[in-house]
Structures are given as structure tokens and as C-alpha cells.
Amino acid sequence: MADTHLNRDVLSALQEVMGDEYSMLLDTFLADSEERLSQLHETGDAETLGATAHSFKGSCSNMGATRLAQLCHELEQRSKQKPLSGIERLVGEIDGEFAIVRPLYEAERQRSLAQSTTVQRF
Amino acid sequence: MSIVQPMLEALTILIAEDSAADRMLLSSIVRRQGHDVLTAANGAEAVEAFRQQRPQLVLMDAMMPVMDGFEAARQIKDLAGETLVPIIFLTSLSESEALARCLEAGGDDFLAKPYNQVILAAKIKAMDRLRRLQATVLEQRDQIARHHDYLLNEQRVAKAVFDKVAHSGCLNAPNIRYLQSPYALFNGDLLLAAFTPAGDMHVLLGDFTGHGLPAAVGAMPLAEVFYGMTAKGYGLAETLREMNAKLKRILPVDMFCCATLLNLSFQRRSVEVWNGGMPDGYLHSIASGERTPLKARHLPLGVLNPQAFDDRTEVYPMALGDRVFLLSDGVIDTCDAHERLFGVERLQQVFAANRDPDRLFEEIDQALRDFRGEARDDVSMVEVSLVEAAQLSPPALVYSDSGQSCPLDWSVSFEFRAATLKRFNPLPYLLQLLLEVHGLRAQSGALYSVLAELYSNALEHGVLGLDSSLKRDVSGFTRYYQERNARLDELQEGYVRVHLQVTPRDEGGCLTIRVEDSGKGFDVERVMARPLDGIRLSGRGVSLIRQLGRNANWCDDGRTACVEFFWEALA
Amino acid sequence: MSVVTEVSPDGQKLTISIKGRFDFAKHQAFRESYEFLQPKPDYFEVNLKDATYLDSSALGMLLLLRDHAGGENADIRLTHANADVRKILAISNFEHIFDVV
């Protein structure tokens, strides 16, 4: 029941699919995620909050950030209820979780770049 | 995870997804599966990309900025028209309401996030199968529509050819009324009418088995026989034999033609009827109001071989104004919404309720409409009235020669003996011979009528010994003709001699016709003493000869009849 | 099955029973019921007890059977026809060329 921060199986499947573009995928995800996080902080209305959380949830699940996806799901559900209490705390948790997984992704990115210079491709 | 081998052709797939990372990932997955990829970051871009590039399949994120996936899906489906462009929604939506929205917007399937490659490949394959199925259906529909157009055109051509063959008919004569759909021909319905050289009228209402061109194709040879023989002066029996033999020869075994034939004689005030397989016709007597059914006593044309064919006809007297009404089985077979037939009883009810004979057609047409709710296109009806011969103007015969070579001074004699009298009608041949003389052509009608009367008097009253007074009334009429056929079948001896002589006179000429028979003769003086009248059913033959020809006289106790025709110089 | 056939034990007689509407839809089944029988039977019966209706294509099919069975010399009986079917056979005068029993 303990959500994983980063699902390694998903990552290796991603690498398999993306091939040379794996690192670019990771970069894109990280850039996307930062943008979404700012949106979460800035936005005031419940609907946009819910939509952004929903969108972020989707990407996270694709990229194997299981716990992060779960938090986004909670935020999405909470944004539909009135009153909007405890929202800031959830956003804070999401910040925190991202802070944990981001270096993990960066490390993964480094690893894959290093790998590509040493492993002979056909 | 192994690459999923593409088992289908490479598709062009549009991926509409606002998250860059997801878009990148999905593009890679789809490319790896062997397809070409187009991308869009929002609904509006997706619609534009579709409009420009027409991909075959769309993967659409539901929640997008600018224009969401639902609206984009609606617009893309609109643009696609009849072509099926499958749209697979990409969604983490699990609420049923949101899923319902996807379906409403025209989505064909869903793919949940996180993306599963195997499931995606399976869904793409399934959607592609549907897409190709739809494309096949549309192509076949178009093919069918094209073929249908060809068929319609073929029918138009066939009908144009047929109309040229049938043009020599007299359906527009003032004593004929008819109702027929313009495409009756392709339901196998045939209606023909033509004058004989004597001014009588032959009418045929026919119904070929089958529909479409096979039914229509038999009509052309039949029409040619009908018109050709009628114009030459052949009687109903001979024409029927030829038509039957022709159809038997050319049609496949399971095709035939039901038909009713009429020979209406304005001079003799009678109608001769042959009905093979058609519904009852009706002879309506205006004076008594009675309708005599003309029942089918014969097999349809084209079934029996010539030896077995039965050409016996029935003859009924008619008064001025009497009508014969024929109809095809499209009338009887008209069904209502509960599959009940209109039937003969309802038709009889319309007859019974009819007060004005001139409105009968409208009343039947209306009754059919009331019964069925709409018109059928294979209902054929014809009504032929007996009118004064003078009211009709048969067209003049058209001759194809130049008139330079013409026999002016000759004679010929024939003796037709028992065996010939039974099975051969010499009149068309004799008429053709006489029409070689140009001066006689203007009188061909009178000529034929007189020849026919002389011959039938010689045969029936002379050789067969029939008493013309039998033809006093309707039942007598029937007995007379039955007796005629019976005696002719048994005939062993006897003859009819015909002698024709053409001699020049001043600038014109003279034709002398002499007809002798081997019979007992009759009391010439008594018959000649009767006034010339055209009203009695019997004995009118002599009056006719005296009116149409010149110097008619009988000698040798009535066994020999002579009559002359004259003509002036031609202009 | 709306076209049912039965061959007599000695192979000399074929009985074809028609059920329902005797129309063009039965064309193929009817033909196949007699076309390839070897040796050819001497007598044929078409049992119309359960036939509700007969149209001109059915008349055509009967003519084909007659042609197959020897034309003028064919021995074909049409049996147990109901009133409607009898009427159609009467109008077309098919009783002149088939034994309607």
C-alpha cells in the first residue's frame, strides 16, 4: 500500500520505447511539471485547480511517479468539494513529493546519457 | 517488452494531447508500432490538423485547453462525414458521467492512463478493422448505385427500341381507353392494338412472367408478329399460332406469356376472344347492363408446342356502345397493409356500383388507391368499345414500291379443298396479290372485307352447311361457332374456288372476283328481296358485299358469287 | 425445410412436398430436388398440401420439371392443392398439362 516514489519498471519500459529520446522525455516531463506546479500555486478557482491536477496526474502516472499521481488525484477530488479547505496543505504535499522525485529523474537522466556513450548501438 | 509487430498497414494517426511529455511518449509508442504520427496540443490544433491531413485514426485527450477533446471530436466527426475515423479518447476519467460524454461526442473507445502499449495496439487494430469495414460498405453501396444506374439506362434503351417496334399500333383510336404505367413493359405487361385491312381491330393484353429485361425482351418478337400479321389480314387463330410457336421457340422453358386477344369487328358487330391464363375479361352490354366474363380457357402462350396448341376462339355479338374490358392481374393482386387481396369480389362491387360506363376506369383506379393507399405500377386496364365503323379512320397502308411495274391484265384461279380449308386461311395471300395492282390500293379495306365475306359465306354456309339464322342471339352465336369448328374438323370433302381477273378499262381498271363453293346453295331471290340493313346479327354478309362492291350477283343457285371493283386512272 | 423430397423404395417415383409460399425463393431448392437424381424416376408428384400460395415463377418451375420429366410424355401429379392454389392452376389452365388431383 506504500506508494512508490518512482516505479523502476515503468522507467525501463519508457526507456525501451523512447530509445535515444528517453532523456528528452525526462527533460520534457520535468519542465512540464514545474509549470504545472506554478499553476497550482497561482490559481484561485476550484475548476482550474481540478483540471490542472487532473492533467498532472495523467503525466505522473505515465512517468511512473506513483505517489505524486496519487496526491494529484486527491487534489482533484478535493477541488470538487466545498468548502475548499485543506487545499493549500495538499499542494504543499505535492511540492514536497516533487522535490523528492525530481532528483531521482535527474539521476536517471544522467545514467541514461552515460549509458548511451558506452553501450554500442548497432 | 517486445515490439508489437504491425499486422495491419501503416496508418496515419493524430495524437491530440496537451501534456508535452505524454504527447512525446504516445508518439513514440505509436511510431514503434509502425504508424505515422501527427500531433496537436489542443482541440483547435487537432481539428485543423485533421482538416489538412485527414489521418485515419485519432487519439484524443479529453481535457485540453482552447478546445476540449469532446468538441474537437464532434467537429472531426462532422468533417469526416460518411467515412469512419475512429476516435480513441485518452483519459484518466473514471466517472461514468465523463465516460458517457465521450460516447456522446462520438468517441469510439477509451485508453486509460498510464498508457499500456499492448492494449493500445489491440485497440488500434480493432478500430482499424471497423474503419475498413465501413469503407468497404460505402464502396459497395456506391458500386450498387452505379450498377443500378446502368440497369435503368439499359431499360431506357430497351424501351426506346420497343416503342419504335410498337409505334404502328392504334392504341390512340377513339374507341380505346387504357391505363398503363410507363414502365409496365418492365413488369412484363404488354398492350397492343392494330387495325386489320378490313377495318377490324385486334387488341392484345399480355403479361410475361418475370420482371425487368427478361420480361421485356419477349415482348418485341411478339409485337412484331402481332403487327405484321394483323396488317396482312391474318385472323386471330393464325396470329395466335405464330405467336405461340415463336415464344415456345425463343423463350426458356419456365417463361411464358399470359394473354387475352380480341378481334373486334365493327362491320359484323362481334368480338372474337382468346384468353390464355389472364384474369377474366368482361363484355359489358349497355342495353341490359349485363357483364359476361371472358374466362381463360387456354394455357398461356409459349407453353405448348405447335401441335398441341389450341387456337379455338369464342365469338360474342356486340351492340353499338357495348364494351370489352380487360385487366392484368396487378389489379386483382393489389394488397393492402394486412396483405389482403383486392380480389375479384371487390372488382365486381365496383362494377355493380358503376352508373356511368365512361367513369368506370376512374372508379376502379380510385377503389384501388383507397384499398392500398398508393398506386401500384403494374396495373394495366383497357376498354374497347364498339362504335360505328365510320367513326374510325384506320391509317392508310404504306407501300414501299415505286409504282412503275404493276400487273394490269391477268387472271388467276384457286381451288381450296377440304384438307386446305381446315388449316389454311387464303385471304392474306389473296389480298397481297391484289395489292400489287396500285389502282386497288385505295380500296384495300373494302376489298378485304368483301373477300372475307365471300370466303366465309362460301366456307360456312356453302361447304359446311351452317345456317346463318342460328346467329340470332348470344347463345345461338356460341353454338354457331362451336358447330363451325366441329364441322370443319370433320370435313372430308368439298371445295371453295376463287377466281380473280384484272383487266384495264379506259385509264383505270376492273377487278372481277368470283367465288364458288361445293355446297347446296340458297334461295337467291328470297335473300335479295330483303332490304339492305346493317342491324341484324345474321345474314349481313350479303348486304355488305352489295354495299362495298359493284354489280354483286349470285348464280348457280347461290353457289357462285361475283362482284366487281373499279378504279380510275391514278393522278 | 420448405422443399422436402421422398423417393420410393424402387426409385421409380419422386414426391416433392412444398411448404409455405411456392415462389421464386424456392427456385434453387426445387430444381436441385430432381435435377441430379439417377436413374430418373418415371413418376413425379408435387404435394401442395402445405403450399399456401403459387405465383407465376412457381408455374415456371413446374414447367421446368415437366421438361425434365419428358415434356409431353411426363407423368406429373399435383396433389392436395388448397382452394387458392387450385384457382391459380385453373386460371392458367395448367390442369390441361398436369394431373391435378
How would you concisely characterize the structure shown here?
Chain B has helices at residues 20-32, 43-53, 69-80, 96-104, 117-166, 212-217, 219-232, 236-250, 329-332, 343-353, 360-372, 418-423, 427-434, 444-463, 474-490, 524-529, 540-548, and strands spanning 12-16, 36-40, 57-61, 87-91, 109-112, 176-179, 189-195, 201-208, 257-265, 270-276, 281-284, 291-294, 314-317, 323-327, 381-385, 410-417, 495-505, 508-517, 550-555, 560-567. With 571 residues, chain B is α+β, with helices and mostly antiparallel strands.
Structural key phrases:
heterotrimer, A: 122 residues, mainly alpha, 5 helices, 0% strand, C: 101 residues, alpha/beta, Transcription Regulator spoIIAA, five-stranded mixed sheet, 3 helices, 5 strands, 31% helix
Structure explained in plain terms:
Chain A has 122 residues and is mostly helical. Helices cover 79% and strands 0% of the residues of chain A. Chain B is an alpha+beta fold and 571 residues long. Chain B folds into three domains: 126 residues, Response regulator (Rossmann fold, 3-Layer(aba) Sandwich); 219 residues, 4-Layer Sandwich (Phosphatase 2c, domain 1), CATH 3.60.40.10; 158 residues, Histidine kinase-like ATPase, C-terminal domain (Heat Shock Protein 90), CATH 3.30.565. In chain B, the strands form four sheets. In chain B, strands 2-1-3-4-5 form a five-stranded parallel sheet. A five-stranded antiparallel sheet of chain B has the order 6-15-14-11-12. In chain B, strand 3, helix 3 and strand 4 form a beta-alpha-beta unit. Chain C has 101 residues and is an alpha/beta fold. Helix content of chain C is 31%, strand content 33%. Chain C has a five-stranded mixed sheet. Chain C is globular, with a radius of gyration of 12 Å. Chains in contact: A-B, B-C. At the B-C interface, loops of B face helix 2 of C.
